[in-house]
Design brief:
Elements: H1 6-10, H2 20-30, H3 41-48, H4 52-64, E1 68-71, E2 76-79, H5 81-93, H6 95-111, E3 114-121, E4 124-132, E5 146-148, H7 153-161, H8 164-177, H9 182-199, E6 202-205, E7 212-219, E8 228-235, H10 241-261
Antiparallel strand pairs: 1-2, 3-4, 3-8, 4-5, 6-7, 7-8
Helix pairs in contact: 2-4, 3-4, 6-10, 7-9
C-alpha cells in the first residue's frame, strides 16, 4: 500500500507555518521501506507523486546532508548514516520496548508465533520490536518493517483505540488511496472497532494476506500519550482463529494491561 505525498501535504499547504520543501524531503526518506536497499529518482518520483526534476533536487540535497548515499554503480540512492542516528535515538527513548521484550518473548514461546510491537507512521504501522519462538514458522518481517494500517490486526487495533477524530481523518486518507476497494476496507475497519469493544482485541484472519492470521491490542505506554500496538500472528496453517482468540487473546490482553501500568 503506497501512501500519498501530494495529497497529504496539499491538505495543509494553506498553513503558513508549514514548510512544503521540508515535508517533501521527509517524504522522500519515508519512501524507503524495509525491503528497499536502493531507490532511483524515477521510483521515488512515482512513490511521492512529484515531478522527477523536484525529486532530483531533493535527493541531491539529502545526499549533501548525509541522509542519502548515491551509489554510482547503480545510479540509485540508499539511506545514509544520518538517518540511522535519528532512528537509533528514537528507539532508545522507547522505554516500552525494554519493558515489553521479555513479556513478548514469553507470549511468542507460548503461541509458537511471532509477537511484534509497533507504532503508527501515517497509514502504516512500523515494527519497533519483534520476538519469535525458536520453534515458530514466522513471517519474514523484522524491526523497521511496515504493514498496512487498514487491513492488519495491529493497524485495526490502533484505529479501534485512537480518538474518533483521528480515526475519521485516517479513514478519509485510506479511502483516497483506493476508492474501489474502500467499501470492503471500511467494513473491515468498522467490524474491527466493534470486535475490539466486544473482545478486547482486533483480528485479521486472511484479510491482509490470505495465509496469515493475527490478533492485536493497542495500548498507551505508561507516561506516554502515544498509542502503540502489539500483535501475535503467523501462517494460518499453524495459527487457527480459535487458538488465537481462545488461548492467545487473554494473554495478549494481560500483556497490554501490564505495559499500560508499568512504572505506576
Amino acid at each position: 500500500m503506497n501512501e500519498p505525498s501530494a495529497g497529504a501535504t496539499g491538505r495543509i499547504k494553506e498553513d503558513r507555518h508549514f514548510v512544503t520543501a521540508l515535508a517533501r524531503g521527509l517524504e522522500v526518506l519515508a519512501c524507503f521501506r524495509s525491503g528497499d536497499r536502493m531507490l532511483g529518482n524515477q521510483e521515488l518520483a512515482r512513490r511521492c507523486k512529484l515531478p522527477k526534476s523536484t525529486i532530483s533536487r531533493l535527493t541531491y540535497t539529502l545526499t549533501k546532508l548525509g541522509y542519502l548515499e548515491y551509489v554510482e554503480d547503480t545510479g540509485r540512492y540508499r539511506l545514509g548514516s544520518a538517518t540511522l542516528s535519528l532512528g537509533s535515538t528514537m528507539l532508545a527513548r522507547m522505554d516500552a520496548r525494554q519493558i515489553a521484550r521479555p513479556l513478548m518473548q514469553e507470549l511468542a514461546d507460548f503461541s509458537q508465533a511471532m509477537v511484534s510491537l509497533g507504532t503508527r507512521d501515517r497509514l502504516s504501522m512500523i515494527y519497533v520490536e519483534n520476538c519469535r519462538s525458536p520453534a515458530a514458522l514466522t513471517l519474514s518481517l523484522d524491526v523497521g518493517s511496515r504493514i498496512p494500517l487498514a487491513t492488519t490486526a495491529m493497524g485495526r487495533a490502533y484505529l479501534a483505540m485512537c480518538a474518533d477524530g483521528e480515526r475519521h481523518d485516517l479513514m478519509d486518507r485510506i479511502r483516497e488511496l483506493d476508492e474501489v476497494a474502500w467499501p470492503r476496507i471500511r467494513q473491515g475497519i468498522e467490524q474491527a472497532v466493534q470486535q475490539y469493544r466486544e473482545f478486547g482485541v482486533c483480528a485479521s484472519f486472511g484479510d491482509w494476506q490470505k495465509d496469515v492470521n493475527a490478533i492485536a491490542i493497542a495500548f498507551r505506554p505508561a507516561g506516554s500519550r502515544s498509542l502503540m500496538a502489539i500483535n501475535c500472528g503467523g501462517p494460518a496453517f499453524a495459527l487457527s482463529p480459535d487458538f488465537l482468540m481462545n488461548e492467545v487473546r487473554p494473554r495478549l490482553m494481560a500483556l497490554g494491561a501490564r505495559l499500560e501500568h508499568a512504572g505506576h
